[in-house]
Amino acid sequence: MSNALGRDLAKLVAAVDAAATECGHGAYGQRFHIMPPAGWLNDPNGLCQAGGVFHAYFQYAPFDVEGGVKAWGHATSRDLMNWEYVGAPLLPDEPFDCHGVYSGSALAEDGRIRVLYTGNVKLSDADGTYDYVNTGRRADTVYVESVDGLAGREFSQKRVVLASEDYPEDLTCHVRDPKVWRDDNGRYHMVLGARRRVDGPHVDSRFCAMHGEGAGRDVGEILVYGSADMLSWELESRVSTPERFGFMWECPGYLELEADGGVPARFLSFSPQGLEGDRWDRGNVYAAGYMPVTGNITGGKDAYELGEFRLWDAGFDFYAPQEFTAEDGRHILIGWMGMPDEPTYGNAPTVACGWQHCMTVPRELTAGAGGVVLQQPAREIERHYASVRVGAGSLEVAGDACFDVVVDGVDGAFTATVDGELKLAFVPAEGELPSRFEMRFTDEGRASAGCGRTVRWEPVDEVRNVRIVGDVSSVEVFVNDGALVFSTRIYPEAYGVTVDALGANVTYHALNI
Ligand code: FRU
């Protein structure tokens, strides 16, 4: 269902998409990572599988490569590797979403795709009094469902199911990104990311300039709602950490992984903004990670305990991931391989071609020991293994833009170079610095392969195995069965991988996708 504005927007987006398809994505177009046809892509939305088909909707600003008013783009796949863009079914055409069909999620059930998203509105500021944190912004939760069955390309009339006034009063206007699931009893739950207002003096935060003074005192949290029908919602719980952990939590998720002994391992996923101090100042401007949950977040404030926060990905380009359960029961995570508000590095080579950003490779999740989630590229990647090279302790292969390198039996030493420009290494402890795994661009200039990216590292006691997955303009590195992951965009002039790891087995697969 649409209105006159929606119909015109649809024509404009289709024209931009068609023109972009003619031009292609240029030398750095990805082969197996979801890209926008044109313009800007951010968060994955509405991830689900129905009738064998995977659906990945995404935040899409087709008219401006640097972002703009968001619609939902839509890509589908049968194997998580070959993705086809099929249109932009949700456009900002209603008063309650006119400044963006913001992030949300989907459930495929009863032969249709049911969606919840945030309608973003920044009210016009006639008197110049809005700060857009505590005033001037709306973020209604909106429901739509597909009217073309499981195709998911056309949606019903939009319906506001929670208006901004319905959220707890002590929140700022920043509430968004509903992630919905159905529990074993058939009851629906959704989590929403939020920024709670705290009055009083603020601490001097590097985030105040961009996010207002409240960035130095507001508190990130998650609202948990419950419903019998996905339409009428009641607040079940509010989840936050005992100590303030950033001022805003975006894109929450709640996942249950099978664990030993049949007790599910539960995790709260979110993208916190405003983390400061050494640990965070050397990393990305915003983080995305998870905390193990003891108990259950749907049961009120005494029903759960949160464990240690871990980054989903410690590389340069990763934010706002979303997880879903595939029809075969696998838990799959897809993240945005980009970083918002990033001043020091960019993606000039694709921006010059009129597009920016892509998703990560879909990653299978399993529960590891000690509250760690392990990530591995979806196994479908193996169907695209074209040729194999093996090496004992070292290997050098040049020429493939797409590859999957598995290094097993690492014992102490590990270094690898990707495309001559990106170094991966296990670095022993020195001085104040712990032993760590490092991803480092050798040339840090903005015109280099890293476009200004420098170094990222995480402490790790030992490295047992490393897997390096390359697409034309991205590298994703899975360390120790995927307990630690690093992702980055890269714009190399020539392709090639060198691995040195005394005693290890190196297996290099060129990918044909
Ligand atoms: C995260 C985010 C979400 C929001 C969307 C808007 O990157 O800021 O919180 O819904 O992007 O595009």
From TrEMBL:
Keywords: Glycosidase, Hydrolase. GO terms for molecular function: beta-fructofuranosidase activity. Residues 451-497 form the Glycosyl hydrolase family 32 C-terminal domain. It holds the Pfam family Glyco_hydro_32C. Transmembrane segments: none annotated. GO terms for biological process: carbohydrate metabolic process. SMART domains: Glyco_32. Its EC number is 3.2.1.26. SUPFAM superfamilies: Arabinanase/levansucrase/invertase, Concanavalin A-like lectins/glucanases. It is an enzyme of class 3 (hydrolase). Residues 33-197, 206-377 form the Glycosyl hydrolase family 32 N-terminal domain. The keyword Hydrolase applies. It comes from the Bacteria. Belongs to the glycosyl hydrolase 32 family. This is beta-fructofuranosidase. It comes from Collinsella aerofaciens (strain ATCC 25986 / DSM 3979 / JCM 10188 / KCTC 3647 / NCTC 11838 / VPI 1003).
